Amino acid sequence: KGSKAHEDIIILEAHMDTVEPGNGVKPSFSEDGLYIVSDGTTILGSDDKAGIAQIIEVEAVLRENNLAHPPLELLFTIGEEVGILGAFNIDKDLVKGKIAYVLDGGGGPGAAVIGGPDYYDILGTITGRAAHAGQAPDEGISSIQVMADAISNMKLLKIDEDTTTNIGRVICDYPTNVVPEVTRFAMEVRSLDTEKGKAQVQHVLDTLQASVDKFGAKLEVSVDQSLHAYHHSEDNPVLKRFKAMCERHNLNYRTLVMRGGTDVSG
Questions:
Q1: Which of 40, 202, 205, 215 shows its CA 20 to 30 Å from the CA of 133?
Q2: Residue 52, Cβ density class (10 Å: 0-12 exposed, 13-18 middle, ≥19 buried)
Q3: Are 143 and 174 in contact (CB under 8 A)?
């Protein structure tokens, strides 16, 4: 049909994996009977069941009422919550459309997510040297002391308006009479600005290496980027189409920038 036909196709996308707790959902009506709610112990429509329900409802309404519409492609991915794995691994030969709306991210009717961050996972191991903490502590190199030194010299949490860094895990489990040889850690860097994100990752690596060198330890570290920063301008054709729809239906059009990720980031 040619490239123009492909440009007319609209992709509606949502991911099928959900946040927890998602087992044992017990839906019921709210007290006023206007809404379906959970019993408070599980999610109901959260991330991203609501998006899936909306897409299925669109298809049902179009079919039941025999409404005219552009060609649609309905895309449901997996593994979004654990690193946007589904979006990264889509067989692009099976998807023809050039315009896509990802129903995820919140904000309510009329809200469009127009930006998101670079995201880096930093995983590492610091290896020191074990020794008896009472008899010969000076013969050991405490890996957790090395990590503590690095943390004390590291810029963490809110770095600037665009960039954050957090350490989620520091694992070192030894008896108290042993100078701990190995410490493992996991941390993240996020930034809405690509260059700032790269600079912060390098700062983290340099700080870790400086502490390792200071104490004579060893460092193994890996950096994996799972999200890619984006920012859509107001003249983006997908946004302009969405804004026009909001005006037709008297919805309050507004734009949001996320600090987390969606399948758009893939």
A1: 205
A2: buried
A3: no
Name the residue with higher pLDDT: 83 or 203: 203
Bridge partners for 220 per DSSP: 125
Q: How many Cα atoms occupy the beta-carbon half-sphere of 60 within 13 Å? A: 6
Tokens of 114: 């127009």
SS3 content of the chain, % helix, strand, coil (to 5): 30, 30, 40
17 given a catalytic annotation: yes
Contact 37, 30 (CB under 8 A): yes
Residue 80: active-site member:
yes
Contact 185, 179 (CB under 8 A): no
Which entry of 7, 17, 73, 121 is annotated as an active-site residue? Answer: 17
pLDDT of residue 19: 86
* pLDDT value, residue 7: 60
Can you give the pLDDT at residue 266?
67
* pTM across the whole model: 0.79
Tell me which of 13, 47, 48, 80 is the catalytic residue: 80
Asked whether the beta carbons of 31 and 20 are under 8 A apart, the reply is no
